[in-house]
Amino acid sequence: MFKKGEKMALAKSLKMFLTIFVATTCIYMVLYQYHLSREPITQPKYIKPPLYIITPTYRRAEQLAELTRLGYTLKHVVNLLWLVIEDANQTSPLVIHTLNRIGVPYEYFLAPMPDEYKNTKKAKPRGVSNRNRGLDYIRANATSGVFYFADDDNTYDISIFEQMRYTQKVSMWPVGLVTKFGVSTPIIRNGKITGFYDGWIGGRKFPVDMAGFAVSVKFLHERPNAKMPFKAGYEEDGFLKSLAPLNLTDIELLASNCTEILTWHTQTKKNANASPLNLTLHGDTNLVSLNTFLVRT
Ligand code: UGA
Ligand code: MN
C-alpha cells in the first residue's frame, strides 16, 4: 500500500505529533500545579464576635422537641456557644443525648429553682436561676462577644443572631406574639426610643420580653453585680435595671430600627405526661425503647 519512504515519513510525523502532545501536556500540568500553589488558602478575613446563647430548660413532655427545634435553628449560626441550663437537681441523659445529636457546640449545667419559689402558689420566676448560672459562666469564661437569653420554646429568625453579634452595649428589637398587642417593642420616632409598646407595662422601666434584647460581654464585665431577680414578670426589667448605668440612648436598635419581627414568643400547648406502658403486652417490642424517651412524672 505505502511505499517505504512514505511509511517512514508517516512514522516521523506521528512521532513528532506525540512529542508535541506529551510536551504540551507536561507544560500545562506544571503551570496548573504552579497556579494551585499560588491560590490563597480560603480563610475568613476575621473571626466574627462569639455569641453566647443562654437557654433555660426543664423536664416536661415537650422538652426534647423544643430543644431539637431550637438546636437546629442555632446550627445555622457560626461561632456560637449554646449554654443549656436545666432547672433540675440531676443531669438528664436524654437532654445530653439530644444535644450531642444536634451537634451545636454546647455546655450543659444544672441550676434548680430554689424551693421557696418552686413551692409558692404565686407566679414562679421561671428560668431565673438558669439564666443567672449562664451569667456566672460568661463572667468566668468569656472575654468578648455578646450574650442572649433564648427560651427553649420561642421562635428565632437566624438573621437576628448575625445582627445582635455586634452589640456594643445593649441591643433591642420587637418580639411577636407577646400579649394581646401581638408585639412587644420599643417605640421609635425619628430613630429614637420614645417609649415601649407592650400589653402589660406593670410599672416597668424596660417593659420588654426576654427574647427582645442582647448584651455585650464587655458591658456585663463592667457591671459585676448585674443579675436577674427572682420576681415573676419583672425578670427582664430587673436584669436590665441591674445593668445601670444604661440609658435609652445607649440602646442599639436592630431589626431595621425595630420595623421587623424576627423573634416570636411562641408557646407550645402543654402535653400530658405519657400513660404507663403495659410491659406484659409490649415487653418484647420497640415500645420498650421508645418508653425511655417519654416523660412520666
Ligand atoms: C415568659 C418570658 O418569655 C420568660 O422569659 C420569663 O421568664 C417568664 O415569662 C416569666 O415571667 O416567668 P413564658 O413563655 O411565660 O415566658 O415561660 P416559659 O416558656 O414556661 O419559661 C421560660 C423559660 O424558663 C423557658 O426556657 C423554660 O424552659 C424555662 N423554665 C420554665 C424553667 O427553667 N423552669 C420552669 O419551672 C419553667
Ligand atoms: Mn415561653
Q: Short summary of the structure?
A:
It holds the Pfam family Glyco_transf_43. The chain contains 11 helices and 12 strands.
The level-1 CATH class of the domain at 51-172 and 211-248: Alpha Beta
Query: What class, by secondary structure content?
Result: alpha/beta
- The H-and-E topology, N to C, reads as HEHEHEHHEEHEEEEEHHEHEHH
CATH level-four homologous superfamily name of the domain at 51-172 and 211-248:
Spore Coat Polysaccharide Biosynthesis Protein SpsA, Chain A
User: How are the strands ordered across the major sheet?
Assistant: 3-2-1-4-10-6-11
Mean pLDDT: 95
Which ions and ligands are bound to the chains? uridine-5'-diphosphate-glucuronic acid, manganese (II) ion
Q: What CATH architecture of the domain at 51-172 and 211-248 would you give?
A: Alpha-Beta Complex
Low-pLDDT runs:
none
CATH topology of the domain at 51-172 and 211-248: Spore Coat Polysaccharide Biosynthesis Protein SpsA, Chain A
State the shape: elongated
What is the makeup of the main sheet? 7 strands, mixed
Radius of gyration in whole Å, from Cα? 30 Å
Number of helices: 11
Binned, the helix content reads: 25-40%
- Kindly state the number of beta strands: 12
User: Which strand-content bin applies to the residues?
Assistant: 15-25%
Taking the alpha carbons of the first and last residues, their distance comes to: 97 Å
